[in-house]
Every structure is written in C-alpha cells, then in structure tokens.
Amino acid sequence: KSANPQWREQFDFHYFSDRKDMLDIEVWRKDNKKHEELLGTCHVDITALPAKQTNCLELPLEKHPGSLLMLIAVAPCTGVSISDLCVCPLGDPNERQQISQRYCIKNSFWDIKDIGFLQVKVLKAVDLMAADFSGKSDPFCVLELGNDMLQTHTVYKNLNPEWNKVFTFPIKDIHDVLEVTVFDEDGDKPPDFLGKVAIPLLSV
C-alpha cells in the first residue's frame, strides 16, 4: 500500500569477469498471492561504475513512472571462490594450518566479523526428474547462503550429472541456512525446479 516504498536491503552479488556486465533490476507489485504485475525495469552497466567506492544512483524505470534509489559498490571479492575438485582450496596442508591458526581460540576476538567460512563440494546428483520431452534434463546447481549465491555449470541431457566443483563462502551469520537447489536449464525461459535441500550451518 505504498507508492514510495523503502526496503533498505543489502545484497551481495559475486561478479566474475566471464559473466555479463549488466545488472538487471525488476520492480513487481503483488495484489495477492496469485497476481503479480511488473511495475518497471532498469539496468546498470557494472563496467561503467568507479571501483572501490559506493555509487549513489537514481535509476528511472523504463516505460513506467517512478525511479529506484540504490547504493552500488564494486569491490574485489574476498573469501568467495569456485574451483575444480582437483584444485580444492583446502587441499594444501599449509593452507589448512594457516586457517586453523586463524580461527583458534586465542584469535577468536582478533576480527569479530570474521566468523569463518563454509566450503561446499558439489559432486553429483542421482536420478533427477526428467524435465525435457527427450526424457532427460539439463541440470545445474545453485548454492545460496544468506544473500550470497553461486552456481555450477550446466550438464546437458543427463539425469545423473557430475559437477565436481568446490564453492567457498564467507560466513556472516552462524544462524544462516545453506540452500542447495537443482534446476533444469530451459533456454530463454525461466529454469524448471528439480529439487532442493536446506542445511542449517549450526548442523554442520
């Protein structure tokens, strides 16, 4: 019931050089649980923004009245990585020793915000649902922790995909839940849902 909403939400997107350079934003209105209406879209060219500073942007909505006020900062990623299983970041004994020392009891209060990190090895999926007429799926896996999201590549025409990827997330809240979702890539259409599992960090 507002034409001037204030959200005051922060989202972290991990921008890699091999991804597209445009940030696409959509504003939607909900009448009820079933009806939604698009109120407008806008786009931000990430490459045009000055790095290592907070940019205050007022973005007019395309083909619709209104605008969005946003703060966008482009900064180097810290603590986030995607790697192959054969070059797992924690596979080096020296690195494991450094991390053990970094999080030992005597260093607990050295950096209060540095709670720790989560490393997830996504190996494979088994007996997925067939989403295509061919009796196969084009599955990829999305990992979400808080507002952080990373994903695997797509394995085409396969119900038993193997990804063998290692994902590393910085932990910002020990009460967060890791959500792992498998989707079927469907060209230009939204991906189809194939399954999901949720793992509270406190259970790890």
Explain what this protein looks like in three dimensions.
With 204 residues, this protein is mainly beta. The protein folds into two domains: 1-77, no CATH class; 81-203, C2 domain (Immunoglobulin-like), CATH 2.60.40.150. The protein is built from one helix and eleven strands. Strands 8-7-10-11 form a four-stranded antiparallel β-sheet, with no helix packed on it. The chain has a three-stranded antiparallel β-sheet with strand order 5-9-6, with no helix packed on it. The relative contact order is 0.14.
Question: Quick recap of the structure?
Answer:
The chain is built from one helix and eleven strands; from the N terminus they run E-E-E-E-E-H-E-E-E-E-E-E. The chain is mostly beta strands.
CATH superfamily of the largest domain: C2 domain
The CATH level-2 architecture of the largest domain is identified as: Sandwich
Task: Indicate the mean pLDDT.
Answer: 86
Percentage of residues in strands:
35-45%
Keywords: Calcium, Membrane, Metal-binding, Repeat, Transmembrane, Transmembrane helix
Main location: membrane
Family: Belongs to the MCTP family.
Membrane topology: Multi-pass membrane protein
What's the structural blueprint in terms of helices and strands?
Elements: E1 22-30, E2 36-45, E3 54-60, E4 67-73, E5 81-84, H1 93-102, E6 116-124, E7 139-145, E8 148-151, E9 162-171, E10 177-186, E11 189-200
Antiparallel strand pairs: 1-2, 3-4, 5-9, 6-9, 7-8, 7-10, 10-11
GO biological process, one term: regulation of neurotransmitter secretion
InterPro entries: C2_dom, C2_domain_sf
Membrane topology: Multi-pass membrane protein
